[in-house]
Design brief:
Largest sheet: none
Number of domains: 1
Helix content: over 70%
Structural class: mainly alpha
Shape: globular
Low-confidence stretches: 1-8
Strand content: under 5%
Distance between the termini: 14 Å
Mean pLDDT: 76
Length: 251
């Protein structure tokens, strides 16, 4: 039989996959994807047409995008540390905490699927970062502002990942989860910055299918909430260890 410590290590793997997918779905959300090209162009100090036609412009945009992703990753990882620290302080109430978090995540999932709508989640809030375009430092500041202010668009999925981080109860593990979320959200920004002309049609297709993407996000949220309520993350961890014994070396 595997030791408990190994189960906990393996349990982080499905949670990291959920966080990664959550980051990608956050990028595809209705108030992020449509503004990505002009946002990237602004950060790089170029126009959208220049970003589409000039390789040199895309290089500038890509450099700015790297610092932008570093900025948003800084905030998300700090949030992961805070959430897991909170979870650790509430360790004696962890069973109730997981139930409440699971129910909340399922409610958010039902909102995205369309079972019902929660009014404030349909409103967008952004933090203005002033005139910061065209510099690495400005792009980093914009990344910080993006992470703090692009709510509630990021809020529901980010809240799910923070709930998972809080149930981990260890700062390092919570930070890893939010790093996976930042990776899932940030890498598409870098890909668009580097390959914008080739990805333009793909982004157009995604915009036309926003309703379907929202339902997929809702299904992910609802499923994760149910797994939190029923303890299926632990069951999935056992399955991973039995299916891939090499994972036991992670402990």
């Amino acid at each position: 039989m595997f030791e408990t410590s190994l189960i906990l290590d393996a349990a982080l793997i499905p949670a990291m996959l959920v966080a990664l997918v959550g980051g990608l779905l956050s990028f595809l959300s209705p108030c992020v994807l449509p503004v990505v090209p002009p946002y990237l162009a602004y950060m790089g100090g170029v126009s959208v047409s220049e970003m589409e036609e000039a390789r040199q412009a895309r290089r500038r945009v890509f450099g700015a995008a790297v610092f932008f992703v570093l900025g948003l990753s800084t905030v998300f990882m700090l949030l992961g540390m805070a959430a897991s620290a909170l979870g650790r302080s509430l360790l004696q109430y962890q069973e109730w905490f997981i139930i409440i978090a699971g129910v909340a995540v399922m409610i958010l999932g039902a909102h995205f699927i369309g079972v019902f709508r929660i009014g404030f989640l349909d409103r967008e809030m952004r933090v203005a970062a002033g005139d910061r375009g065209g510099s690495a430092f400005g792009a980093y500041i914009l990344g910080l502002a993006f992470a703090f202010g692009w709510t509630p668009c990021l809020g529901p999925i980010l809240g799910m990942i923070l709930s998972l981080a809080a149930t981990e109860g260890e700062v390092a593990r919570g930070t890893v989860l939010l790093a996976a979320y930042a990776f899932g959200l940030g890498i598409p920004f870098l890909l668009v910055a580097a390959f914008f002309p080739r990805l333009k049609n793909v982004m157009g297709w995604m915009k036309r299918h926003m309703d379907r993407i929202e339902r997929i996000s809702g299904l992910l949220l609802w499923t994760v909430g149910m797994m939190m309520l029923t303890g299926q993350f632990t069951a999935l961890s056992w399955w991973l260890l039995e299916r891939f014994p090499a994972l036991a070396t992670l402990g």
